[in-house]
Amino acid sequence: MKRLTPNLAVADVAQSVRFYTEVLGFELRMIVDAEKAHIGDALKEDLTYIWANVMHGDVGVMFQQKQSFEEDLGVSVEHTGASASLYMEVEDADALYESLKERVTFHKTIATTWYGAREFYIKDPDGYLLGFSSEVEGGEAFKT
Fold it and tell me: Per-residue pLDDT tens for 35-46?
C-alpha cells in the first residue's frame, strides 16, 4: 500500500474546502463542479462542487457531496460524521492549538495522554472528528 486518503461525504464541498484550507492550512489540489465541466485547483463562487481533494504535507482528504457519493458508490449516506476520527500527527500540537483557539470549537481541549502525546480534537463543519497529536519528549506515543 502507498497511501490512505479518506473520502468524506459532506453537505457542501466548498464549505469543507474553506474550513480545511482557511482554518487548518491545507492546500486545495483539485476540485470538480457539479456539471463536471470545471476541474481546477481554485474555488469559484458561482459554481456548485461535488468533489475536492486537499493536502497538508503528506496528509490528504477528499470531500464528496453526499448525493454524488451515494450515486458513485451505491450506498446511502444517512448522516455525516463517522464512528471514527481522523488522527493527524503534527510537529507541535500546542502551537497548532493556540493558532486555532479563536477559530474553532474544541471537542476535546489539549492534554497530555497516558501514552505520551499532546492531543486535542475538533469537529469539522460536517461533524467529522479531527485529532491532532504530537509527541511529548520521552513519550511512547510514536515509537514502533
Answer: 988 899 999 989
What does residue 118 show for φ and ψ, rounded to 5 degrees? -95, 120
Shared domain check, 97 and 39: no
The CATH number of residue 112's host domain is 3.10.180.10
Q: Are 67 and 78 in contact (CB under 8 A)?
A: no
pTM of the model: 0.84
- Look-up: residue for cell 511512547? 140
Radius of gyration, alpha carbons of the chain:
16
Q: Are 104 and 120 in contact (CB under 8 A)?
A: no
Q: What is the DSSP string of 59-116?
A: EEEEEEEHHHHHHHH------SS-SSEEEEE-S-HHHHHHHHTTTS-EEEEEEE-TTS
